[in-house]
Write the structure tokens for this entry.
Amino acid sequence: MQVQTNRNAGTRITRRGFTLVELLVVISIIALLIAILLPSLSKARDQAKAVVCATRLKGQLSAVSVYAAESNGDYILGSPNTSGSVLFGPHDADEAGMMDDWRWNPVQVWDWAGGMAQSMGIKFSRGTHEDRYKEIITMKLFKCPSNKAVTEAYDAGLQYGVLPMVSYNTSRNFMWPGKRSLLEDSFPGQLEGYTTDPYWAEPGCGWNWDWTQRAGVKRYSPAWAEVSKESYLPRLDQIGSPAGKMCLSDGGRYALADQAPTYNARPFAGYGGAFSDVGPYSFFSRGWDRRMGWPEYRAADATDARIYSFRHGKKEPFLPLGSYSLNVGFFDSHVERLNDIKSANPHFWMPRGFRLYPTDDEVHPDVIETYMQVLETDERGREFIYIR
């Protein structure tokens, strides 16, 4: 205790300081308040990032619409047969020859971002393929602020070091042309009596190159298993209702339960490359892997890949289905925040009229239970649903 004498009044003033106990109580209260407020602040910060992500998605969706309007046919951005077709140009099969050709922004046949930037008049550096690839995936316009994942190259041929994961992916189902459309486009007026199909892969291989020299045409064509509507073209007027069809979404390609995140930067990468994938309705997805939602798939060394693509919900791994969420942008330019159950609606991820087979397409159990209760039978006796 400190005592001070007031000389004018002749009185003494006593000033009492804080005791150690009182200081400890105050510190404890402050620590408690911090503990209470920090989660709220962290949640608010995450919500703000999700809003920024949705805003960037809306901008990208508007650019998709502009590309479709300027393509003289409502063609969809990001297909090997639309914006990605520029890579076939003078190089065709010569992958090494086009690697460092900076005249075209797309760095891969599935690259929607490079094609979008080119449509918007954005110019990239005149560097190597590696320079352009890094420039695209790090550009703020194409980056989700919640995406902190880093990837390593799985392909020994293109080692570009440790890179950020591509933030947004398209649905590969919208990108393939149907068998009949591809034939008619390649060989106009020559289909009468044409019975052989030399450039179609066996079902299950996913994709293949058409090296058929007839009419001097070389085309990128999928296995028939990928496209179930022969007349389909990757055009906006053939997908069904734009408000119910996914265009761009938070993604995590490649992120799987049994491996660390990787990337495939090869210009002619198969199965969607770094930019496209099948939807979260399927076990085959490498960008929206939901397997860890089922305890029976959780091995001792497993990783819950949902935290990479469904990055706007919970952060802890191995939580029940429905705990994680992502932003999904639709072809009508609206964006929705959906959890890892609702986003698996297969009707979002495929064009109208396509068929989805629960066994052949490795469909998740909850998707079968929710969306595939009424099945039809094809000519081979296999059960399926029509995508509406």
